[in-house]
Amino acid sequence: MAQTTAVGAFSRASLNGWEQHGFHGRTAYHLEKEHGVTIVKASSHHAASALFHRVRIDLSKTPWLNWRWRINHILPTQNERQKSGDDFPVRIYIIASGGIFFWNTKAINYVWSSHEPAGSHWPSPYTFNSVMMAVESGSGHARRWQSYKRNVREDFRRLFGRDIGHIEAVAIMTDTDSTKSDALASYGDIYFSSQ
Known about the structure:
With 195 residues, this protein is mainly beta.
């Protein structure tokens, strides 16, 4: 039987443990019921803020990240590999702490890219300790729920060349500050599983 660890139990109408952290303005996040299921709706107008949850996950036991999300439309960014285009309608941050050595902190950003192909990855234009990975691309699946499953431990090993045993935080973010655009998106439950 698969072992699971809930991170975002949004369907239980709960944001317990989640805190908003702003970077530029504030994306509006709120719980909303849709077809009998509670989800998180995110609305961003030239803003960038994240919902952040400190949670320690043992990747030796539950390495698989499971989630679903939906976007209304892709963003008018020209180059997502540059600071001027580093906006995404949806993203999930997975953060592995460097302990007292903050420069050792590593992060993977799973994103819905406007132009970069699904499966591609590139360093964040803001810090070499963070990698962007496109799990979805373009507008072909816009306005429809999409579900994903990633082996986070394997992704850290492949992207950073390190075996990460634990992660310390998960964040969701809908941001449009760099492109001065708008986004409307939805997030379903987020959990880790053993398989």
